[in-house]
Automatic annotation (TrEMBL):
<feature type="transmembrane region" description="Helical">
    <location>
        <begin position="244"/>
        <end position="267"/>
    </location>
</feature>
<keyword id="KW-0802">TPR repeat</keyword>
<feature type="transmembrane region" description="Helical">
    <location>
        <begin position="288"/>
        <end position="307"/>
    </location>
</feature>
<dbReference type="Pfam" id="PF13432">
    <property type="entry name" value="TPR_16"/>
</dbReference>
<feature type="transmembrane region" description="Helical">
    <location>
        <begin position="374"/>
        <end position="393"/>
    </location>
</feature>
<keyword id="KW-0325">Glycoprotein</keyword>
<feature type="transmembrane region" description="Helical">
    <location>
        <begin position="405"/>
        <end position="426"/>
    </location>
</feature>
<dbReference type="InterPro" id="IPR052346">
    <property type="entry name" value="O-mannosyl-transferase_TMTC"/>
</dbReference>
<feature type="transmembrane region" description="Helical">
    <location>
        <begin position="460"/>
        <end position="481"/>
    </location>
</feature>
<comment type="pathway">
    <text>Protein modification; protein glycosylation.</text>
</comment>
<dbReference type="Pfam" id="PF08409">
    <property type="entry name" value="TMTC_DUF1736"/>
</dbReference>
<dbReference type="Pfam" id="PF13181">
    <property type="entry name" value="TPR_8"/>
</dbReference>
<feature type="repeat" description="TPR">
    <location>
        <begin position="535"/>
        <end position="568"/>
    </location>
</feature>
<feature type="repeat" description="TPR">
    <location>
        <begin position="569"/>
        <end position="602"/>
    </location>
</feature>
<feature type="repeat" description="TPR">
    <location>
        <begin position="603"/>
        <end position="636"/>
    </location>
</feature>
<dbReference type="Pfam" id="PF13431">
    <property type="entry name" value="TPR_17"/>
</dbReference>
<keyword id="KW-1133">Transmembrane helix</keyword>
Length: 760
């Protein structure tokens, strides 16, 4: 017996309670009553969720983590906190035409806190937070599923009754161990989805609290809880854009569950022109219109602010990011979008083939109805239409509620990724399924309950459920291991998406970073073969060929890259470097100028332009170019060094000394700058200061033969011959082939021998 109930929605009448009890009893053969108390259920779910992904705790920063975290200056203390509200997720200004417009300042703020607490870019702290977040969200799912399966019923003290403990526990476990979540949990960038989901669910539960009380006129809504729910929805959106969809889900929950709107009944009344439409009276009595007004106003306000913040409009994506959105003809686009939906559904049903990236030829376009893949579209819509009909037309109110909310959680959070409202920058992305998987778990659990009710082979169903849980846990552990390093992650994608040029590109890049240029070239060539317009692969391949002195092919590749993408500044700069090496100086200068035209703040290009001018003995132009590089990037050590060396070589010792001192003020621990300035001071006969800088540079880099050799020259000039002999010998030990040092050491030895003879 349930005492002192306050009923809300379809679960508020005794028949619904009876049906929920039957459904939960049907799952008794899977979960014994001893683990059904909510606290136990939450402990079990939280522990299982953490165990599944614990293997990723000591992983590296992989894939997008490099751009969003390691290369993101918004994480560092030098960047004012206020800039987070004007930058996108990757640290670029939202007003920039190159910005992806992904506005997630609260997620970036958590990265910044992680960076501060970890004392730098130490990935363990970042991964641990992600794992704990998933554990916490999985615990929260017990309450969410309890509402979805058991409805809203409260005791006289305002405590919600858990009327479906077995169903909510099973669904929460299915959610906790779903392998499709690996990208969100094991990839640090996935924290945006985790935080978004956390506040999304809190917003939904907060909205549910608005119906804790009832009066004679019907359900009474607490405006405070509705407003709090809208606020939490805004917080969710500031973690990731998907969060705004919680307002739509709350509206569906309110209309179809709390308001008990029977859509089929209303349609029938409209078609028969029934003027009674008694359900419309509930709009006024239940305060539904007021709540819908609040939700609509809140959503509109959030969208308006978001649009204003975006600045220059929506982001611009390329065909390789989302080929279907660039396809000719609306029918082709629609067919391929629906095929993408079916692939997402398959990833929820069978999360065995997982890949970090599904773009660039991984999923070829469907261009004809004879393509066998259209069967997947038909299967998807056959299932969806069947579920929708059951959700809207079933006479069983309990069944309608669960199917409606299951479909709501499945579809509504997925809408921003559906290409229906705007073009997205991906084909399929496992991370966007984190929230929709809640709906999948609802439908799957309901399906298991229905099977249990209509079959006598309950042990077989129990074995299937436990088998799914164990297999998914194993898959989570294996997949988490693949996300621990880029090499494992990228290679794991080869078997899933062998036609994906980006997979081959990333393997090549990883090999190149490790110094394996021969293997890297092979993968870069395959990436270009699979996607002949893949300019980034051409650029990287051209760079390696340049380093291997295969300049002709490097120039051809880089020239092709800038023809395909004329605003590709990095390719223009690298083309200039190759042309400079080929002694084609005019063409090189033009390429450098094109790079600077397309990227005005490009210090590395100014540095290379300065090297070109130095080779042409255009010393003033070289100094100006290097000065521009240091103005754009004050810590550009190479530009500072080249200025000092050029001024030194041209006899401008005073100016060289001034530039050297300026550079060391900005980069006080750079031993190469200490070395260059020490050389200048030695020539200016400021021996003591020069000696101090040489010794400091040697302390920072004790194995640099030139440092010891030049210090020996200083002592040689200064007359400290024993010290000169000592450092000549150290220098020759480090580099026995240094001809200049050998010659100076020979002169010193002859001088010492002459001095000994004179003494005799």
């Amino acid at each position: 017996m349930i005492p002192n109930q306050h009923n809300a929605g379809a679960g508020g009448h005794q028949p619904a309670v009876f049906r929920m009890a039957v459904l939960d009893t049907d799952l008794d053969h899977i979960f014994p009553s001893s683990v059904l108390p909510p606290l136990w259920a939450k402990l079990v779910v939280g522990l299982v969720a953490i165990v599944c992904f614990a293997r990723s705790y000591d992983g590296d920063f992989v894939f997008d983590d490099s751009e969003a975290i390691v290369n993101n200056k918004d994480l560092q203390a030098e960047t004012p906190l206020g800039d987070l509200w004007h930058h996108d997720f990757w640290g670029s200004r939202l007003s920039s035409n190159t910005s992806h417009k992904s506005y997630r300042p609260l997620t970036v703020l958590t990265f910044r806190i992680n960076y501060y607490l970890s004392g730098g870019f130490h990935p363990v702290g970042f991964h641990v937070v992600n794992i704990l977040l998933h554990g916490g969200i999985s615990v929260l799912m017990v309450d969410v599923f309890s509402v979805l399966f058991g409805g809203l019923q409260y005791t006289s003290k305002g405590r919600r009754l858990h009327l479906a403990p077995r169903a909510s526990l099973l669904a929460a476990l299915l959610f906790a161990v779903h392998p499709v979540h690996t990208e969100c949990v094991a990839g640090v960038v996935g924290r945006a989805d985790l935080l978004c989901a956390l506040f999304f669910l809190l917003s939904f539960l907060g909205y549910c609290k608005a119906f804790r009380e009832s009066n004679k006129e019907g359900t009474y809504s607490s405006t405070f809880w509705v407003l709090l729910s809208i606020f939490l929805g805004a917080v969710s959106m500031l973690c990731k854009e998907q969060g705004i969809t919680v307002l739509g889900l709350n509206a569906v929950f309110d209309i179809l569950v709390i308001g008990k709107f029977n859509v089929l009944e209303i349609v029938q009344k409209v078609l028969h022109k029934d003027k009674s439409l008694e359900s419309l009276g509930m709009l006024r009595n239940g305060g539904l219109l007021f709540r819908m007004t609040l939700l609509t106003s809140g959503g509109a306000g959030m969208l308006y602010v978001r649009w204003r913040i975006m600045g220059t409009g929506p982001p611009a994506f390329t065909e390789v990011d989302n080929p279907a959105s660039f396809a000719d003809g609306m029918l082709v686009r629609a067919v391929n979008y629906n095929y993408y939906y079916s692939l997402n559904a398959w990833l929820l049903l069978c999360p065995w083939w997982l890949c970090f990236d599904w773009s660039m030829g991984c999923i070829p376009l469907i261009k004809s109805v004879s393509d066998w893949r259209v069967i997947a579209l038909a299967a998807l819509w056959f299932c969806l239409i069947g579920l929708i009909c059951q959700a809207l037309c079933s006479e069983d109110g309990h069944k309608r509620r669960i199917l409606t909310l299951g479909l709501g959680f499945l579809v509504i959070p997925f809408l921003p990724a559906s290409n229906l409202f705007f073009r997205v920058g991906f084909v399929v992305a496992e991370r966007v399924l984190y929230l929709p998987s809640v709906g999948y778990c609802v439908l799957l659990t309901f399906g298991f309950g229905a099977l249990s009710k209509h079959t006598k082979k309950k042990k077989l169903i129990a074995a299937v459920v436990l088998g799914i849980l164990l297999i998914n846990m194993l898959r989570c552990v294996v997949r988490s291991g693949q996300w621990r390093s880029e090499e494992q992650l990228f290679r794991s994608a080869l078997s899933v998406c062998p036609l994906n040029a980006k997979v081959h590109y990333n393997i090549g890049k990883n090999l190149a970073d490790k110094g394996n240029q021969t293997a890297a070239i092979r993968y870069y060539r395959e990436a270009v073969r699979l996607n002949p317009k893949y300019v980034h692969a051409m650029n990287n391949l051209g760079n390696i060929l340049k380093e291997r002195n295969e300049l002709q092919e490097a120039e051809e590749l880089l020239s092709l890259a800038v023809r395909i993408q004329p605003d590709f500044a990095a390719a223009w700069m690298n083309l200039g470097i190759v042309q400079n090496s080929l002694k084609r100086f005019e063409a090189a200068e033009q390429s450098y100028r094109m790079a600077i035209k397309h990227r005005r703040k490009y210090p590395d290009c100014y540095y290379n332009l300065g090297r070109l001018y130095a080779d042409l003995n255009r010393h003033v132009d070289a100094l100006n170019a290097w000065r521009n590089a240091t103005m754009l990037k004050p810590e550009h050590s190479l530009a500072w060094n080249n200025m000092i060396i050029l001024l030194d070589n041209t006899g401008n010792l005073a100016q060289a000394e001034a530039v050297g001192r300026e550079a060391l003020e900005l980069i006080p621990n750079d031993h190469s700058l200490m070395f260059s300035l020490a050389n200048v001071l030695g020539k200016s006969q400021k021996y003591k200061e020069s000696e101090a800088l040489f010794l400091k540079a040697i302390k920072a880099n004790p194995n640099a033969a030139s440092y010891h050799g030049n210090l020996a020259v200083l002592y040689h000039r200064w007359g400290h011959l024993d010290l000169a002999k000592k450092h000549y010998e150290i220098s020759l030990q480090l580099d026995p082939m240094a001809s200049g040092t050998k010659e100076n050491y020979g002169l010193l030895r002859r001088k010492l021998e002459l001095m000994q003879k004179k003494d005799v």
